[in-house]
Design goal:
The protein is 66% helix and 6% strand. The protein is mainly alpha-helical. A 3-stranded antiparallel beta sheet has the order 1-3-2, covered by helices on one side.
């Protein structure tokens, strides 16, 4: 493992820990910001995949489709399980003082709680099993570091779609 792969692995682990912790915290619902994470994760994943030389087979593609469907299913479940509450004054003040927005548009907060965390743990476990199994069988695409980011991007995007639909926001433009 070279230093770049090690850095990518550490970054992926940090993102997973960060997302897991956010399942338990109330977060402001800002539909415009829903798409930033999936977009960033997709760019990182595609950049990582473009830096590697892979021999891709139809089995690789099949495993990737299975993994992405599982990520999308977990994202849909997380979006469906999300709890909502009116935004607190503290949340509005934090949003108003952050460089990201005015805070005036923040009316709702959300979290998925322990069930959302359990879904993340399950998704990660399946990802590890697919990664180890495909690597041992010589299928390279699923075990590529960039796929971690793509899986997270798909999960977060589907979650955002479901939450937006539940709140009647539709699909916002990427800001």
């Amino acid at each position: 493992m070279n230093s770049m792969n090690f850095f990518q692995l550490l970054l992926a682990l940090a993102i997973i820990v960060w997302i897991c912790s956010r399942q338990l915290m109330w977060r402001p619902v800002d539909p415009a910001r829903f798409w930033r994470g999936p977009l960033i994760f997709t760019v990182i994943g595609l950049a990582s995949l473009s830096d590697t030389t892979l021999h891709i087979t139809t089995v690789d593609l099949g495993l990737v489709v299975i993994e992405l469907l599982l990520a999308a299913g977990a994202g849909a479940a997380m979006g469906r399980l999300a709890h909502f509450r009116p935004a607190t004054d503290q949340t509005r003040r934090r949003a108003a003082t952050s460089r990201r927005g005015t805070g005036a548009d923040i009316t709702t907060e959300t979290r998925t709680g322990w069930i959302g965390l359990a879904l993340w743990v399950a998704l990660i476990a399946v990802r590890i099993v697919l990664d180890v199994g495909s690597h041992q069988l010589g299928y390279e695409l699923v075990s590529a570091t960039g796929m971690i980011f793509i899986v997270v991007a798909v999960n977060r995007a589907v979650r955002a779609l479901v939450i937006s639909a539940r709140l009647g926001h539709g699909v916002p433009a990427i800001v």
